[in-house]
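Deliverable D2.4 — example input (C-alpha cells):
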C-alpha cells in the first residue's frame, strides 16, 4: 500500500514540476487510458483527414498546386505515423488501435465528415482547418506525456507551412475573378462552423477536460482555444476581403476578444455519432485501404522473420 502511494506521489510530483512522463514510468491507469483515447483519435484524424484533400489531387489547377497538395497529404500520413507510434508506447498495438476505429469505438475529428466540393475547399482546409489544428497543437507541445509532446513539436512545424500555403491559395482566389472570389467565400461559409467544432464541446459540457487539465494532458481548455482561433482568423479574413459567416461576430473592446455566435451543437452531436454527410464513406474508404495494404504488412512481417527469426508482427 505504502509502495502504491509512493508511486502516485512520484507521478504527481513530476506533473507538478512540469517533468515529462515517459513510457516506462509508472502512471495511473486512468492517465494511460485517457492518453490512448486522445492520442489514437488524434492519429485517426490525421489519416482520415487525407481523404477530403485526396479527392482533389487529380484536379489541382496547376502542377505546382498539385505537388504542394501531394506533399501536404504525405505530411498528414507522417503525422498519423508519429502519433500511432507514440500511442503504441502506452502498451496498445497498432492492430487494436485501428480496430477501434473500424468498430466505431474510436472517433476522429468531426470536420473530416464534410465533403470537399470545390477547389477553394482545399485552400480553405489548409487555412482554417490546419489553422485550428495548430492552435490546439501548439498548446499540446507542452502536454505531460513525453512522446506526445515531442511528436507535436515536429507536427506543428509542418502544420504551420500547411496553414500558410492554404491561406495563400485562398488569397489568390479572393483577388481573382468575381466567380473565383465567390467560390472562396462559399468554401469559407461551409467550413467555418465545422472548424469551430474542432475544439470540442463547451468546457462545461466536456467530459474529459477537467481531469485532462489536472494531469496536464490538455494545457488549454476547449473554449480558450476556440477563442484564440477566432481572434487570429478574423483579421486574416478581413485582409483578403472575405466575410466570416456569423452575424453575431463582433469585437468586444472590454474583453479584448471577438464575441461570436453559438455553434449548432445538434449538428456536432450528429456528426460525432456517425451521422455526418461523409462518415460512412470515410470509414469505408479507410477499411478498403487497410485491406489493400494487408500484403504489405504480411511482406514486412515475413522479411523481419527471415532476418531475425522473430514473428515481426
Ligand atoms: N470531433 O470531453 P471532450 C489535422 C469527442 S487533424 C470528434 O471535450 P477531449 C489535419 C471527444 O473525443 C488534427 N470528436 O474531449 C489533418 C469525446 O469523445 P470520447 C486533429 C470530438 O478529448 C488532415 C467527446 O467528444 N486534432 O490537423 O477532452 C488535414 C467529449 O469531448 C470532437 C486533434 O485531434 C471533434 N471535434 O477534447 C488537415 C487534437 N470534439 O473520446 C488537418 C487532439 C470532441 O469520449 N485532441 N469530441 O468518445 C484534442 O485536443 C481533444 O481530444 C479535443 C476534445 C479538444 C478534440
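Example output (designed residues):
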Amino acid at each position: 500500500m505504502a509502495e502504491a502511494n509512493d508511486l502516485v506521489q512520484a507521478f504527481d510530483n513530476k506533473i507538478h514540476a512540469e517533468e515529462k512522463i515517459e513510457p516506462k514510468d509508472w502512471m495511473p491507469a486512468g492517465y494511460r487510458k485517457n492518453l490512448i483515447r486522445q492520442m489514437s483519435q488524434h492519429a485517426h484524424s490525421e489519416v482520415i483527414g487525407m481523404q477530403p484533400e485526396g479527392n482533389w489531387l487529380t484536379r489541382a489547377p496547376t502542377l505546382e498546386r498539385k505537388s504542394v497538395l501531394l506533399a501536404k497529404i504525405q505530411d498528414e500520413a507522417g503525422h498519423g505515423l508519429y502519433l500511432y507510434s507514440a500511442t503504441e508506447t502506452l502498451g496498445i498495438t497498432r492492430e487494436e488501435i485501428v480496430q477501434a476505429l473500424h468498430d466505431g469505438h474510436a472517433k476522429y475529428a468531426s470536420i473530416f465528415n464534410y465533403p470537399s466540393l470545390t477547389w477553394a475547399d482545399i485552400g480553405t482546409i489548409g487555412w482554417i482547418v490546419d489553422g485550428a489544428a495548430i492552435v490546439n497543437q501548439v498548446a499540446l507541445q507542452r502536454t505531460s506525456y513525453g512522446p506526445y509532446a515531442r511528436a507535436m513539436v515536429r507536427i506543428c512545424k509542418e502544420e504551420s507551412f500547411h496553414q500558410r500555403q492554404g491561406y495563400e491559395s485562398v488569397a489568390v482566389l479572393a483577388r481573382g475573378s468575381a466567380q473565383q472570389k465567390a467560390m472562396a467565400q462559399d468554401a469559407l461559409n461551409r467550413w467555418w462552423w465545422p472548424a469551430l467544432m474542432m475544439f470540442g464541446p463547451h468546457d462545461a459540457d466536456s467530459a474529459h477536460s477537467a481531469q485532462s487539465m489536472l494531469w496536464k494532458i490538455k494545457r488549454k481548455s476547449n473554449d480558450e482555444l476556440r477563442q484564440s482561433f477566432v481572434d487570429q482568423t478574423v483579421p486574416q479574413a478581413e485582409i483578403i476581403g472575405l466575410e466570416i459567416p456569423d452575424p453575431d461576430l463582433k469585437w468586444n473592446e472590454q474583453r479584448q476578444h471577438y464575441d461570436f455566435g453559438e455553434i449548432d451543437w445538434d449538428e456536432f452531436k450528429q456528426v460525432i455519432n456517425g451521422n455526418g454527410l461523409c462518415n460512412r464513406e470515410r470509414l469505408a474508404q479507410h477499411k478498403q485501404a487497410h485491406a489493400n495494404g494487408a500484403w504489405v504488412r504480411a511482406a514486412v512481417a515475413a522479411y523481419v522473420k527471415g532476418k531475425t527469426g522473430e514473428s515481426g508482427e
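The CA atoms of residues 123 and 169 lie 5 Å apart.
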